[in-house]
Amino acid sequence: MDELLKNLANVPESIRTAVRNQGGGHSNHSLFWQTLSAAGKGGAPKGDFAKAITEDLGGLDKVKEEAGKLGAGLFGSGWVWLVLDGGKNLTILTLPNQDSPLTEGHYPLFGIDVWEHAYYLKYKNVRADYLKAIWNVVNWDFISDRYAAAMKA
Ligand SMILES: [Fe+2]
After folding, report:
1. Which residues hold their Cβ within 5 A of ligand 1, which is an ion?
2. In CA terms, which of 20, 68, 90, 126 is 20 to 30 Å from 47?
3. How many Cβ atoms sit within 10 Å of the Cβ of residue 40?
4. Domains along the chain?
């Protein structure tokens, strides 16, 4: 699926929208589940990933602030993404719906699902509270390892 999303323009037009939406949704959530941990058990960014968080994005507090701002400002449904861009720099961005960072030439490290289904049961319509609380359940070990593997590739 990730290969199809990377080359979405080459997918036959008759199935391109389905690959983009359903395939993107599968890919995004498959990563999402792996990047979450039990509350308070997610550790902290480590190794070269921790260094890059500071060098590329100004530190973890800035990441949380920027992700919160972008997530709150995202109209409708979509995701906030922490990605490696084409130059292997960390970047935070949003994409609508189930669009995959892979289609944009990025490598996703962590995505925050900001579809209403992700937070409505617990946070009602207060997306900002969800965007603050999500950091309590982020699996930084997994994301640090994913970063290290991507930098080696
Ligand atoms: Fe979702």
Report:
1. 113, 115
2. 68
3. 8
4. 2-152 (3.55.40.20)
